[in-house]
Design goal:
Layout (H helix, E strand, L loop, with lengths): L4 H12 L16 H4 L3 H15 L13 H5 L18 H6 L6 H29 L9 H27 L12 E2 L11 E2 L1 H23 L2 H6 L3 H6 L29 H15 L2 H12 L2 E3 L7 E3 L7 H4 L16 E6 L3 H4 L49 E2 L16 E2 L8 H8 L1 E6 H14 L3 H13 L13 H15 L6 H8 L2 E5 L2 E4 L2 H4 L10
Antiparallel strand pairs: 1-2, 3-4, 5-8, 6-7, 9-10
Helix pairs in contact: 1-6, 3-6, 3-7, 6-7, 7-8, 8-11, 11-12, 11-16, 12-16, 16-17, 16-18, 17-18
Length: 541
Amino acid sequence: MKTNISLFALLLCLGLSSCSPWLNVEPEGEATDEKLYQTGDGYRTALAGVYTQMASKSLYGMELGFGFIDCLSQQYTWDWSRGAMGQGKSLYNKAADFEYKDKDVIALVDGMWLTGYNVIANANNLIMHVQGESADKFAYGEMERDMILGEAYACRGLMHFDLARLFMPAPVENDKSVNLPYVTDYPNIQPSGVDMDKYLDNVVKDLTEAAKLTMHFDTTAIGMALNANTRARFYNEIPNGMETKMENGEAPDDFLKLRAHRLNYYAVNALLSRVYMYMGKYDKAEEYAQIVMDAKAVGLKGGGTEIMMYKDENFEGVRQTDDPEEKKDLKIESNMIFALHNENAYNDYNIESHFRKSVKDNNLAPWFILEFRNRKIFENRGTNADEYENDYRGKKMLFQPDYDSFKWNPDLKRVYSLKYYPGTNTKERDAALGKVPVIRTSEVRYILSECAARKGDYTKAYEILNEIRQNRGLWDPLLEAGNFDDFLADLVRDAQREFISEGQLFFLYKRLGYPCVYADKKMRPMNKAEYMAPIPVNQNF
């Protein structure tokens, strides 16, 4: 069946209209492809626009981050605010209760669908133009053209993948009844839907092509230098002993820098590992995860300098003080592989309506307070020890707002993630909020740990888990499980701490069919009606 024309016609219009400011190259706001793609800088602008749109509130900036998707993962609680001042349930409370027929939830979900396919439409437009373009148009010739094309493929693959993770059944269900369009042409206002297997094969195809193209820069001497460590990836501070110049002897311009905010070669391999894990192809997932963890930046010829790119995990900025105003690096840059960027995140995501420092009234419904009563995520499975005080992700990275009712029962923690703390130091605040994590090395480590456990190598699996714990202040090792279910409980428990308000827990629960819904005084897995967001009603494929 063909899709309803109206939505994809709208997507096409959105891709070309003033609704996308990054395309507004005409003074009147009526941008055209002809104008945009006249110069190499136009291609750079188009690529930046795709990333900007991905960081929007409807996608990774909020709803696929700390918002809607983490409400589905049951991370938050509203047991302290139900019916406050007669307001009833908030939008996000309804989302957490899977009320997909509520008009406000419908509008939110439809907006995610629309914006996601709008990203895809703009990525396809860019791909269509850059594929046949002369290398002479770009400042760095064929290498730059390949970089732009590769990153556009990666954006298209990532966006399609997360639409599938939200709107299609989990692969473990082997349910082929739901089709989604995998759109590779521009314009295409009547795409046909495909089943899960073909859809995910297309994701792999896009990401594989992206890896081939982005490696042309990221594996060169200067490319490795700009990816070498946290300071290089986020701040362009190339380590001593690393190359600082292009082959022509010139310093790289800004377009080639800040590789942590771009889908570089290493980020694409991390995403391939994530996709293969979701598909249940564990050997391939392990292969690509190992590429990331083994990535090594090699220094100047004859210099002998070597840096493991993604081994470092540094919590110094959050662990040295309990004062949230004095903390730095609240998003933990060192284990980010790819993070979108939004310098206006504080306003765009309306941060203080969800993460206030204090409040003097009962209008609390939008707060994203973590659910502690039933999940006990800081309890050690093997010993039942409470690790909240010692785990940096506990006391050091969570915050209790100043509100009188939260003090009535101090045993009930009423905290939210400091990753979104609206501090008074606007420079530090905006630096933290502006980083939108999409994939971290911790996820890659979890993949390697799970793959080892699936092979029965629990010693290796726990070596990885315990290294993660040690880096976060927990020196007592986990007791090695003797079966996969107990191992999985340990892995998920650590992920529940690691991915607080980052959008990944829902997808982990869905992939594993893991119990996360508290009902009848016990946990159960989400059912299909809960984990599969409804496709907009006017869509037929």
